Target: Phosphoribosylglycinamide formyltransferase
Amino acid sequence: MTTPFRIAVLASGRGSNLAALLAARDRGELPVEFVLVASDKADAGALALAGEAGVPTLALSPRDYADRASFDHALFERVAGMKPDLLVLAGFMRIIDGAALTPWAGRMINVHPSLLPKYRGLHTHRRALAAGDTEHGASVHFVTAELDGGPVIAQARMPIEPGDDEQRLAERLLALEHRLLPAVVADIAAGRIALRDGRVCLDGQALAAPLNLRGGTLAR
Model:
């Protein structure tokens, strides 16, 4: 009997990307086992979603720890105890201590609402509009100590329309994020995507550029 690919998720907010992952699992598109959803906020909507889906949850407050590093090491120790194969940051709004990340190299991904390397950090939609960009998008990347700077796995792109303001642009992009993240996780779980020597590989071959979301699948 094949052991299911084990996923843990970190989220700080309402959990819409977690909901997309759970929905993909329920549709049979994501053959994984969710072993934990953890948050730095006890009232995060993601924890409620996880509880409703029967997924174990964990909430730790940064205020209970002396500094960021202490919190991060405590959190990741608890996550490691669930033995996930992959850790997904789905709206986890914290900068993580570099030393805490080291054991997770190649096993942690993040979804970010911009076409990286553009607009790392916050307010990505506002910044894209202010720059007069004609295109916007989302990226999924492997996590490193550099903020939003790890190797990019795949992206979803869309045009910026004349009527877009920050809120409308965010809403339109979120629908793409909800397709992009499950597609990446599915290919990682299937062993198709991996990080080798600092480069993203698909089926054993290093990619020259991030994959692109086309429909519900990833393509070169």
